[in-house]
Specification:
By secondary structure, the protein is mostly beta strands. It has a single domain, classed as Calycin beta-barrel core domain (Lipocalin, Beta Barrel). The protein has a nine-stranded antiparallel sheet, with no helix packed on it. A hairpin with a 4-residue loop joins strand 5 and strand 6.
């Protein structure tokens, strides 16, 4: 079973990439203690997407790396998150395409779900 670092349990992170195919779009990611990840667009009325194929590791006190496979899109997203600076650098691929994206994120706090 996949688990997340305790520092992410129950937290929702909101990130926005400033380049790439999701440029300007904002997404929220909620990390459950059982290892499931739920993501959604931050737009009103957006549906939740539950991902069981996911992982996160704490690289240092300030840096976490999150990776998951989106069942709906077929893309794998891997994102390095710097908790100190709020910087996010991601890599997305689907077997045909690969893209690097940069952006920022914020910790919203405890899960809404």
């Amino acid at each position: 079973m996949t688990t997340f670092p305790a520092s992410l349990h129950g937290k929702t992170l909101r990130w926005t990439f400033r380049d790439g195919p999701t440029k300007g779009h904002t997404f929220e990611h909620t990390f459950a203690s059982d290892g499931t990840l739920t993501w959604r667009s931050a737009s009103p009325g957006a549906k939740d997407h539950l991902q069981n194929a996911s992982a996160a590791v704490k690289m240092s006190d300030d840096v976490h790396v999150v990776s998951y496979l989106s069942k709906e899109s077929g893309y794998t997203l891997t994102v390095a998150l710097n908790l100190k600076t709020g910087a996010a650098t991601g890599f997305a691929s689907n077997g045909k395409d690969w893209v690097q994206q940069s952006g920022s994120f914020e910790v919203l706090g405890e899960s809404r779900a």
